[in-house]
Amino acid sequence: MTEIELLSLIAAGESETVEFKREMDRAERLAREFVALANRQGGIVLIGVDDDHTVYGVTLQPGYEEWIANVGAQTIDPPLPLTCEEGTVQDKTVLVVHVPHGPHKPHCVREGEHKCTVYIRHSTTSRPATREEIGSLYQEGGMLDFDLSPVPRATLADLNMDIIEEYTRSKLGIGLDELLIDLTQQLMSWKILVEREGERKVSLTGMLFFGDQPGDFLPQARLWLKRFKGLTTDEWHPGKEIDAPVPQAIKEAMEYIKLYTVVEEVRGLKRVQKAEYIEEVAREALVNAIAHRNYVRRGSRIHVSIFDDRIEIRSPGPLPNGVTVERMRYGVQITRNPTIVRYLRAYGYWEGDGLGVPRMIRLCRLNDIREPDFTMIGNDLKVTIYSRRYDEFHE
Prior knowledge:
The protein is an alpha+beta fold and 395 residues long. The chain has 13 helices and 18 strands.
């Protein structure tokens, strides 16, 4: 790393991906910073730089590279591959430690014979992760299918048997009273129920697709839609909260979007309706949000914000391991909720070819509409799709 690059990093200050350490610290204390960065998106630790941006430099002992590597291999679990390099700033040595995006989350710091603490990065601070955050990390690391976790307090009576009846007829061609096996066994095979601690309980996926009101048990399952007046959030029309099984929720959300984005034009003696958005593009963005969001975060929900020139769909949770915004645009797909995806496919909302996002982009190009944008806002993914009339508002 050149001196100019280091000066630029130091001038920008600490962030979610950059940490300053004035001096070489104990292995445990350094490991906390490495783990916190790895459990987010990776980053850089500059040793020899104080929090106030002052460069003090560091004296490196022989074998320091091996020592740093050992911190990653012996003090961190699962081991973290750390690399480092020397840099020079104002004739002083700065050690640059490169921390990768954690390959096997959650990573933790061995802090005693029987203690291993998970740390996470929040803004410029590294702190112990909460129980909910640890659950999210397991899910991001592919160690946990949270969509099969049992829903507290939910019982079979909280599921809508009419919807299950309809699903059974579509899958098997028979009604519930014609099943050749016990209803509970059938629901277990479909993962609508799961067994935990010797009891059969409603799964998260089961509640999302077949619950009477999923939001009563899963507040994060509700969708929040709002139509803003103009291009900012200053004024808005009445919003809508949707608490319904997933297929119905998608239908209601699309109806709300159409309500505010289909305009009428007079052609000759006829009034003709013209949609500002390609329905397939808007639906794909919404379905992706439902499929890939992080359901561990109970206090969050999917937000659909409609402006004069765009629709923003914000989904809680970072991208799964190995997926970046750029790779997603080219069809790379790893889902954190495989059972939810399976049901979306069963209901005809999921192609299963990994080409949903490229298809969105291609449809926009074919119709001379600005391509969708995909951006990370903290730990949320925001998808922006643009109106056919976008240029009218930005001339």
